[in-house]
Amino acid sequence: MLALFLSLALTALLLALPLMVWRARAWARADAGLGRLQRALIGCAIAAWGLLGVRYLLLAQAGIPLEARQASQLTSPLGWLTWLAALAGLGVFLILSMKKNNPAGAADQPGNERQPMITASEIEYAYLPAGREKEAIQLVEAVFRGQVAPLYSQEGVEEFLKYATPRAVEGRLAAHNFILAASGPQGLVGVAEADEQRGHIVWFFVADGARGLGVGRELMRRAVAELKRRRPDLHRVTVNSSPNAVAVYLALGFIPSDHQREHSGIKFTPMTLLLD
């Protein structure tokens, strides 16, 4: 029975091998923050699965009966080591798959607890009130860690977080920036920061529980209107979109002005909104 189970398991693993290779390549292209140990285990699993299949086929070509082939996979030290590597890599792969398939993920991150369900009528828009900068930073960091950080290298994550400190925010607000906030009954659900001098959107983040309510669209509308009010001669608004937000900005009327770039580990696509 065990031999039959392992034989079926081997078949399933070999069938899943192309999917695993494809997902691993996709993560590598996205630079999804895989650690060295995770990469090594996934590589061992791919190699082990291939070795199991090749070894099984070689035994078959040598004319060894099915029962003997199954016994060889079970009793030889090489067989057991190969199975161990395959299963260890499979475990890492499944865990990573669940994490990558939950990009909003980060309910486990401090400060990123999912907001309770709210309605659009409960949301109020205004300048970020004085004294709530820390709350805005917590919202930005929580959404960033859940959705953007997995696409950046460690260097990029650290570079972004340099701009998400109370001192950095206070410095920008004292210069040419302003922050608009969307607030619900439980606190902030969205923020948009803009640089008046450059006509540039610096931050644009919406909490998970407030998505689908038009919060982002309304925040952007108000931010653009405020930039235009402060600078009547402004003809375009720019933003550097993270890789996973390009579609969002396209829906808001922005268009790419250049190919994706990378600076200090931060990947972004320059985009522009032309004003009437």
Mean pLDDT: 78
Can you count the beta strands? 8
Instruction: Determine the strand fraction and express it as a percent band.
Output: 15-25%
How far the N terminus sits from the C terminus, by CA atoms, comes to 73 Å
- Return Rg in Å: 25 Å
> At the fourth CATH level, what is the homologous superfamily of the largest domain?
Gcn5-related N-acetyltransferase (GNAT)
Binned, the helix content reads 40-55%
CATH topology of the largest domain: Aminopeptidase
Can you tell me the CATH architecture of the largest domain? 3-Layer(aba) Sandwich
Summarize the biggest pleated sheet. Answer: 8 strands, mixed
* Whole-number total of structural domains: 2
Number of helices: 9
Low-confidence stretches: 27-34, 99-115
Written as H for each helix and E for each strand, in order along the chain, the element string is HHHHEHHHEEEHEHEEE
Structure in words:
With 276 residues, the chain is α+β, with helices and mostly antiparallel strands. It has two domains: 2-100, no CATH class; 120-274, Aminopeptidase. Helix content is 53%, strand content 17%. Strands 1, 2, 3, 4, 5, 6, 7 and 8 form an eight-stranded mixed beta sheet that branches. The protein is elongated. 28% of the residues are buried. Residues 27-34 and 99-115 have low confidence and may be disordered.
